[in-house]
Amino acid sequence: MQFNLADVFETVASAVPDRIALTYEGENLSYTQLDAEANRTAHLLAQAGVTRGDHVALFLKNGIEHVTSILGLIKIRAVPINVNYRYTPAELEYIFTNSDSVAVVVELPEHQRTLAALLEACPMIRTVFVVGEIADELLTAANARTVSVVSFAEARELSPTADFDSRTGDDLYLLYTGGTTGYPKGVMWRHDDFFRKPLSGGNPYGEGTRQDLAEIASAAKEFPELSFLIAAPLMHGAALYSLFTFFTLGARVVLRRDFDPQKVVESIEKDSVQVILIVGDGMGLPLVDEMERRKGEVDLSSLFSITSGGAIWSTSVRDRMLAVKPDLLLRDNFGASESGNDGAFTIDEAGNLRMPPSPNMILVDERLNELPAGSDEIGYIARIGNVPLGYYKDEEKTARTFPTRADGTRLSVLGDMGRVEADGTIVFLGRGSQCINTGGEKVFAEEVEAALHAHPSIADALVVPAPDERMGQQVAAVIATYPGSPELTLDEVQEHCRKTLAGYKVPRSIVLVDEVKRTPAGKADYRWATTMASS
Question: Are the beta carbons of 122 and 97 closer than 8 angstroms?
Answer without folding.
Answer: yes
